[in-house]
């Protein structure tokens, strides 16, 4: 999320037409087209953040600027050339790294939160805990995972919360 992404589409000799067909999980269908015989480009229902990376007659790559969850979906490049039609499809999934917070609750138990991640993060502790993480799903498709350390008879000195996520792992420590 927040970065730019470039999807490659190979130009063939004697290309006559290049079309990107974009079908996001949410929102409307979008197309970018290029006709070689008229050296003309066309776009239908595409946001400003989705466009050709360079000139489509030289390189028909697609660039998505400031990638967000709204960009998730299928991206298909179709090239029509004298030697045939060629298709390449990408399935874009957007990872959102969670924000890690760690605090002590009213009973002196460490509480670890992996806020607004996509997919949901996994939370563990450096010591064995019988904590069951709970998930809160947000409207934008992100998920907050909360885990409270609940081992009885454990010295709560320097407890370490470990958050595992495809966008990167994090850890923090706290004394309650």
TrEMBL record:
Pfam family, one: C2-set_2
Main location: membrane
Domain of life, per lineage: Eukaryota
Any Gene Ontology biological process: regulation of neuroinflammatory response
Domain Ig-like: 1-93, 112-175
Record's subcellular location: Membrane
UniProt KW keywords: Disulfide bond, Glycoprotein, Membrane, Receptor, Transmembrane, Transmembrane helix
Gene Ontology MF terms: signaling receptor activity
GO cellular component: external side of plasma membrane
Topology class, membrane: Single-pass membrane protein
PANTHER family: CELL SURFACE GLYCOPROTEIN CD200 RECEPTOR 2, CELL SURFACE GLYCOPROTEIN OX2 RECEPTOR PRECURSOR
Homology family: Belongs to the CD200R family.
Protein name, UniProt field: MOR1A protein
Organism: Columbina picui
Gene from which this protein is expressed: Cd200r1a
């Amino acid at each position: 999320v927040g970065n730019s992404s470039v999807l490659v589409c190979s130009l063939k000799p004697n290309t006559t037409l290049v079309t990107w067909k974009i079908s996001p999980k949410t929102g409307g269908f979008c197309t970018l087209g290029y006709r070689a015989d008229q050296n003309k480009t066309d776009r239908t229902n595409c946001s400003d953040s989705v466009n050709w990376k360079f000139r489509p007659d030289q390189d028909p790559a697609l660039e998505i600027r400031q990638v967000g969850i709204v960009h998730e979906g299928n991206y298909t490049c179709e090239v029509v050339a004298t030697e045939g039609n060629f298709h390449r499809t990408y399935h874009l999934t957007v990872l959102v790294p969670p924000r890690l917070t760690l605090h002590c609750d009213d009973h002196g138990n460490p509480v670890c939160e992996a806020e607004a991640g996509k997919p949901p993060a996994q939370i563990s502790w450096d010591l064995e805990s019988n904590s069951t993480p709970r998930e809160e799903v947000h409207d934008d498709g992100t998920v907050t995972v909360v885990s409270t350390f609940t081992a009885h008879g454990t010295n709560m000195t320097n407890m370490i919360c470990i958050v595992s996520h495809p966008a990167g792992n994090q850890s923090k420590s706290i004394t309650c």
